[in-house]
# Entry
Amino acid sequence: MGGVFDIIVIGSGIAGLSFALRSAGYGHRVAIVTKKHQAESNTNYAQGGIAVVTSKSDDFELHVGDTLISGDGLCDEGVVKQIVEEGPARVKELIQLGLEFTRIDEGAYSLGKEGGHSKRRILHVADMTGKAIETALLNAVNRHPLITTYEHSFAIDLITLQKLERAGHMRSGEGNRVVGLYVLDVFSGKVATFSAQAVMLSSGGAGHVYPFTTNPPIATGDGIAMAYRAGVPIRNMEFIQFHPTTLYSPSGKRFLISEAVRGEGAMLRNRDGERFMEACDARAELAPRDVVARAIDAEMKKSGSPHLWLDISHQPRAFLKERFPSIFQTCLGEGLDISKDWIPVVPAAHYLCGGVVTNLRAETSLAGLYACGEVACTGLHGANRLASNSLLEALVMAYNGADSVHGYLAKGSEIPDNMPGWIDGEMSDPDERVVLTHNWEELRRAMWDYVGIVRTTKRLKRAMKRIENLSAEINEYYWNFKVEPLLLELRNMIVVGELIVRCALKRKESRGLHYTLDYPGKAEKGLDTTLTL
Ligand code: SIN
# Structure
């Protein structure tokens, strides 16, 4: 493992794979580093689809308008316009790779509807869009001779000129830039050095900072923590999107019940079976997610019930089986026939609207470091992401990022030829591993209890105190013990937890996904929660 490449991509979801394909198309040698099996990514679990303007009754202005409304005053309008307008061309390229979006009988695309959209505009592959996209991209990536994929390879930290200078390895006199990456081979436990002029972070989100999430266990915010440690600005971390409807299970596992189910008329009912969304918002069940999640949270607190109900039983069984095969089967496995039974639902952490600050070319503030997908904060989502805008953003930004990296590589910055190897901690005492498992649970519990859908300054400060303790303990462990995935993930999650709380404390207002009882109104002046190490 290890070696010299033109570009290293961290992560193998829609953003990383699309970026790798376009970059390799330019003739660059690309390494994809992914910490589990290559197909394990947030993308793989996306049910809804891609929000994109394809129908004659829709237009860019409407899609831009819906995104801005959902983003609650914090979207960058120029970014929204560009991503929305470039979307159809990027989706066409996916179709050319062999992706077949679901069509209706006459051959036109079946367009889904989700919260906050004024039109039906979501292209989907039944309720397994992410899986279909991931498969199409992986087929192309695995055939490409210039792309090498390293599975079960955990990216630990970026190597920068500044880091090398500080460690006394060189004196360049140049400004800071990225020159590589340390990567743990999960099976052998050895750490390799990868060298490259450019690194693309496409490592996804951080849902596992919370105990209840729709995200797969890989979503531990690794890219955000890595960028932060390298001195790159991080923004809007307070905007955690809780998906309103996930299947309630006493085991704590949360399976997504797509918003598209509400798009097909599903109604939310409280413990007594009554609808309540109409009284909260004129858009009822199809209001933006922040509104729906807060209304559910309030109903649950009022009644003390561990879940509410989602009712789609008015739709014919055959329709539900065809439109939502995965949801239908999963619910059946839990003893629920959704054409007859109400579905018990609860909100769960779903999407991170903030992240590593980038411009529309996927450039971060650090030369050679790029970011796209959920790890990045471009300005598209603002304070609340519009449903199904994320796959769209990932496609557009991966494309733009590849062009941007191509331009950067043309300038030809040198990679030092004596890159230092990794020095691991000496100790490995299995008895001490309890620190990792205990702190893992403690962090996530604190995030759920104190940094959830409804916040207060007191609760945020409580969370901060705990995070500071956890951070001190885990940093000590990190410097003394051999690295392993659980330690690396926990170290990253603690950084991400801290960033979420610090951003939340800075935002002294309630806006979009950040709602605090201490500041229930919106601030008049725009607040900026950007954080840099
Ligand atoms: C869903 O299907 O409800 C999720 C789609 C998304 O998060 O964009």
Notes: The two ends are 31 Å apart (CA to CA). Residues 47-48, 258-260, 351, 387-388, 390 surround succinic acid (CB under 6 Å). The mean pLDDT is 94. The first strand starts at residue 3 and ends at 4.
